[in-house]
Amino acid sequence: MPILEKNYWLETLTTPPVQSVGDLPENIDVDIVGGGFCGLSAALALAKHGVQVAVLEAETLGWGASSRNGGMVLTGIKLPVPTLINRYGREATRKMYAASLETIDCVEQIIRDEKIDCNFSRCGHLEVACKQSHFDGYEESAALIRKEFQHHLHIVAKSELRAEIGSDIYFGGMVEETSAGLNPARYVAGLAQAAQRAGACLYDHTRVEKIQAESHNGPRKFLLSTSRGPIVAREVILASGAYTTNATPALRKKIIPIGSYIIATEALPPDLARELSPRNRMIYDSKHFLYYYRLTPDNRMLFGGRAAFFPEAENTVRQSAEILRRGMIHVYPQLRDAKVEYVWGGTLDFTLDVMPHAGKIDNMYFAAGFAGHGVAAATWFGTKLAGLICGETDATPFSAIPFPAAPLGLRSGHTWALPLAGLWYRILDLLT
Ligand SMILES: Cc1cc2nc3c(=O)[nH]c(=O)nc-3n(C[C@H](O)[C@H](O)[C@H](O)COP(=O)(O)OP(=O)(O)OC[C@H]3O[C@@H](n4cnc5c(N)ncnc54)[C@H](O)[C@@H]3O)c2cc1C
C-alpha cells in the first residue's frame, strides 16, 4: 500500500463531523474565532452558563492542530522547571505547575461529563535521554519538582529502561504517571458535539476576515466581517492558534508557527507492540529537535517530529515521511520492515519565550502559545477564558507574564527565517 498523505486519526472517526446549522445571527453575546480544543471548550463552558455563543471556524471544526496532533495529554510546561524558576520565581512557577496538572483533570472531567469516546487513558509519559548529560539533569529536575510541587516523577536507569521502551539507544528516562493519551480527532469531534448540545452555535467554513471595535454612545461591541456575512458580538475570544490570520494582526505578530509531522505504521502484531512500549506510555526524547511517539489503540507506531520547520505543505509532508521513517528505525530497528501507511503535518503555535499566554489583546480575549502541550492546555485555557467572561475573577498564572512579539522572519505569514531557527536548534542538540 502506498503511503497515504492523510491524517490517520480522521480515519478512526465513528460519527460525521458537526456542521453549521442555519445562518449567522445578527447579534450574539460571544464570538469565538477558531474551532479547535480552545475555542470549543470555551464554547461548551459558555453555553453551559447560558451565554449565547457562536464558534466561527474557517475550515471544518477541529481542522487545525487539534485533530492532527500526537494525542499526548501532558503535564508540565514546555520549558524545564529550573528555567521557569529563574525566569518567574518560585511562587509563580508553583502556580504554573499546579495549573499544568489541573489541565489534565480538566480534559478528563470534560470527557467523563460529556461521555466522549476518545480512548482517554492515564498511561503516563516517558522522557528519554539522548545524552548522559541529559540523564544527569533528570535527577536534579525530579528532586526539584518533588520539593517544590510535591509531585513525584521517577527516574529509570539505562539498565532498567527495557521495562519502559524496546530501544537501547537512550541513556535512561524519567516517568510521569499522571499524563494521559487520547485520540485527538475523536476528542475534538466530541467537544464540538458537546458544545452544540449545550446550545452553542457552531459555523464551519466561516472565515473571519476583519474585526472592528464599535461603540456608538453605548457599550463597546465588535463587528466581525466573515465569509458568511457580518455578526456583532459583545465579546470576542481569539482561539485561532498557529493558524491565526491577518484578521487579528496584533495577535498574529506574536505567534511563531512551526511545522510538526507524524507518520503511522501499519497495525503491528501485539507482541511487537508490547516490546516497543511495554507500558503504553506517551514518549518523547530530550532533544530540542525532538521525536515524540506512542502506540495507537490499534497498535500502530505513531512517530512524530519537526522533520521540517516550515508549516505543513504538500512537499514538506511528503519529505517528512522518509525523514521520520529513518528516525523511527534508529530508535526501533525492529520496525525496519514495518510499512508506513500514513503521513501528515500540522502547525504548532510557539511564542518567543516558549510560554503559553492568555488575557486580552485589542480588548479581545485570547489564549495561545501552547507549543507541544496544547491538548490539555488549550482545553483548560478555553474553559478559563469562558470563566472570565462569566465573571470569575481568578486570572491564570500566565496572564501576568509579558507577551513578547516574534521577530520578523519567524512570524506567521513571514516565516523565511524558520529554517535558520531549525538549524540553530540542531546545533544546540550537537552542543548540549
Ligand atoms: C503535528 C502536531 C503534533 C502535536 N502533538 C501534540 C501532542 O501530542 N500533545 C499536545 O499537547 N499538543 C500537541 N500538539 C499541539 C496541539 O495540537 C495544539 O497546541 C492545540 O491543538 C491547539 O489548539 P487550538 O484550539 O488553540 O488551535 P487549533 O486546533 O489549531 O485551532 C485553531 C482553528 O482556528 C481556525 N482559524 C484561524 N483563523 C481563523 C479565522 N480568521 N476565521 C475562522 N477560523 C480561523 C483554524 O482554521 C483552526 O481550525 C501538536 C500539534 C501538531 C501540529
The ordered H/E elements are EHEEHHEHEEEHEEEEHEHEEEHEEEHH
* Helix-and-strand structural type: alpha/beta
* Major sheet: 8 strands, mixed
In round numbers, the mean pLDDT is 92
Helix content: 25-40%
- How much of the sequence lies in strands comes to 15-25%
* Extended strand count: 18
Total DSSP helices: 10
Gap between N and C termini: 40 Å
Radius of gyration: 21 Å
Bound molecules: flavin-adenine dinucleotide
Question: What are the low-pLDDT stretches, counting only 5+ consecutive residues below 50?
Answer: none
Net shape: globular
Layout of secondary structure:
Elements: E1 27-33, H1 37-48, E2 53-56, E3 72-73, H2 81-88, H3 90-113, E4 125-128, H4 132-149, E5 154-157, E6 172-176, E7 180-181, H5 184-198, E8 201-203, E9 208-214, E10 221-226, E11 229-238, H6 249-252, E12 256-265, H7 270-276, E13 282-285, E14 291-295, E15 301-305, H8 314-331, E16 340-350, E17 357-361, E18 364-368, H9 374-389, H10 418-431
Parallel strand pairs: 1-2, 1-11, 2-8, 4-13, 11-18
Antiparallel strand pairs: 3-7, 4-6, 5-6, 9-10, 10-11, 12-15, 12-16, 13-14, 14-15, 17-18
